[in-house]
Specification:
Length: 155
Amino acid sequence: MNMSNMKVIATNKKARFDYEILETYEAGIVLTGPEVKSVKAGQISLKESFATVRGEEVFLTNAHISPYKQAAQVEQEPTRSRKLLLKKSEIKSLIGKSQTQGLTLIPIQVYLKRGFVKVEIGLGRGKKKHDKRQTIKQKDVKRDIEREMRGKERS
């Protein structure tokens, strides 16, 4: 993905820890005007959120977008389901893979691309406890190596 014309707004830090991400998709998201303002101000949380397929549509569920303070107080639920915009071929692929292989759709990050709010969703398989331990071990080793390298640079 070309990072030069992107501004990351929110990431789901637990996504890559709890799931082994096999494929990623870029999706548009249907938002109201005040929701777009809130998202651009960074008022979105992907914690506890997931994507679901209903019929031939994909929805982002449980993503929390705080109400925009300057907007007229139109009552809007912060965690309502929001439609994700994908190509028909991508949706058909997702339907097939999520049903047959028991995979989950997880939002990985929300970002701005050329002024539009986009969501990166990943098709993932839940990690087992020992896989998570392995991930932690790899992170620790990498951190130790970087610490050693910085120590050698100073001396």
